[in-house]
Amino acid sequence: MIDIEKIKELCKQSKIKWSGHASERIQQRGLSRDDIIHCIMGGEIIEQYPDYWLNPACLVFGHSLNNNIIHVVIGIDDNVHIITAYYPSEEKFESDMKTRREK
């Protein structure tokens, strides 16, 4: 299981890797790297993906700098790998934006 405190510590040490996909997506979605870091530092893990293809990963729920709810998908090893970030929708999540809707 990934621990949010380990992610935060790696972020404080600037051990962050940005995938090309993440950089492209956050720009398209009007987010900044500062929004992503803010989300992580005040966020919580809502899903774990231990068998993610790259390395163990998780979904972090948090807020952007302007207090919008965002999700950040993170992989972790000796670094935090930002995979993607997005604004969750009620189409895929319950109203708490933390609980995934059943398909």
Secondary structure layout:
Blueprint: H1 4-12, E1 16-18, H2 20-28, H3 33-42, E2 44-49, E3 57-63, E4 69-76, E5 80-86
Parallel strand pairs: 1-5
Antiparallel strand pairs: 2-3, 3-4, 4-5
Features of the shown structure:
103 residues, alpha+beta, five-stranded mixed β-sheet, 3 helices, 27% helix, 30% strand
Structure description:
The protein has 103 residues and is an alpha+beta fold. The protein is built from three helices and five strands. It has one domain (4-86). Helices cover 27% and strands 30% of the residues. The two termini are 25 Å apart.
Reading side by side through the largest sheet, how are the strands ordered? 1-5-4-3-2
How many separate helices? 3
The value of Rg in angstroms is: 13 Å
Q: Which percent band covers the strand fraction?
A: 25-35%
- Classify the helix fraction into a percent range: 25-40%
**What is the helix/strand order?**
HEHHEEEE
- Which structural class fits the helix and strand makeup? alpha+beta
The tally of domains stands at 1
Overall pLDDT: 95
From the N-terminal CA to the C-terminal CA, the straight-line distance is 25 Å
Which overall shape is indicated by the principal axes computed on the Cα atoms? globular
Biggest pleated-sheet summary:
5 strands, mixed
Low-confidence stretches: none
Q: Please give the number of β-strands.
A: 5
